[in-house]
Design goal:
Helices cover about 40% and strands about 15% of the residues. The protein is of the alpha+beta class. It has a domain of about 60 residues. The protein has a two-stranded antiparallel ribbon. A hairpin with a 4-residue loop joins β1 and β2. The longest helix has 19 residues.
Length: about 90
């Protein structure tokens, strides 16, 4: 979504997202070409909404993950090529 002209409250949101993307992904991986960069960014958007916790959402994700009720082993699911992980209970 495009931000409105001279709208400072929208600029903060866009700047925060770009800063998070750079810190979490682009500072650690070199994109080879435009196609690779688009794939990295689409993976990051999925990670940002499904796995990354947000303080404004009381440490929840926008996709509303729910805690596991069963016991058992904890497995690590790599995200963003192994830069980050999502931890879940094995079924």
């Amino acid at each position: 979504m495009r931000t409105s002209f001279e709208s400072p409250w929208q600029d903060d949101v866009a700047e925060r997202w770009v800063q998070n993307c750079r810190h979490d992904l682009l500072d650690h991986i070199i994109a080879v070409n435009e196609r690779h960069l688009k794939r990295l960014l689409s993976d990051y958007v999925r990670y940002y909404h499904e796995d990354r916790t947000h303080l404004a959402l009381t440490k929840q994700t926008p996709a509303q993950r729910y805690p596991a009720t069963n016991g058992g082993r904890v497995i690590a699911l790599p995200r963003l090529g192994g830069l980050h992980h999502r931890y879940e209970r094995a079924t």
